[in-house]
Task: structure prediction
Amino acid sequence: MDRAELIDAVSEDLFAYVMHGEISEQHVTTQLKPTGLDERFESFDSLVDLHFLLRPAVVDFVEQLPARLRSIKTQTKNVQQTTRGQISGRIDWTSTMKQRSSQAPSDTSLFVCDNRHESYDIDENIVLKRLLSIIYTTLEECETYLKQEYEWVTDRWQENLELVEQMRELFERNVHIKRIRDPETYEPTDRMIQTAAMSRSDVYREAASLLQDHRRARESNPDALRELLEETLITPDDEETLFELYVLFQYVESIEEYQQSETSVKTIESGKQEVARIKSEDQSITSG
Result:
């Protein structure tokens, strides 16, 4: 079995066992975690984020971002504003007379004016802001490691540390990004992502595609996990560790198939030698 086949099998089994809470997540992430990373990266989500950050497509996206932000999309809206003693924008006389009649018939200083307002809070920009937030947060957490001589660090991050600072500067200070509101917890919605995916602008289409990839990986989609493991350098350099995970998953599957009675696989608490415990009505088998 070659490396590609191992990655393929491990991706499927990650979805089947670990993400359903049946085998210790900590055990598997510790095996896949690169040398030198601290305990923050022993959670599956953090490890997925790190894999995602090292993808060539993400690095490409960040490199091209400064030029693309110059043509960021906005939406112009007419906003009505009631003022007294001053005129701001074009006077809407119909609305002005209605307001005066209902509120202050003798107040000739009251005006209702139409103002054109440029809004950044469109669907495409919410998608972009969410993606940039993920990249920015992950960079903040692992910037120290990107500066070290670890084999798993993507050369383009390591050799171009200005790119890290560029991303930080854009996210914190770029006038266009700052004018986009922070997405709500549930945003962007599927509809927002679809709108961005159909945009004529490359930056929005790519942002939608990358964000969808990230979501699928976080949701333990086998194809997305496989793609992350294949495209990044965080998988173990030697096939032995991948093979160990493969054997563990195959062992658990074989025990489940062998048992005559119904079995259940239980996660072992972190800090113990065991990885999983398989229970049936008659016996308990521990895997370590």
Observations:
- The longest helix spans residues 123-146.
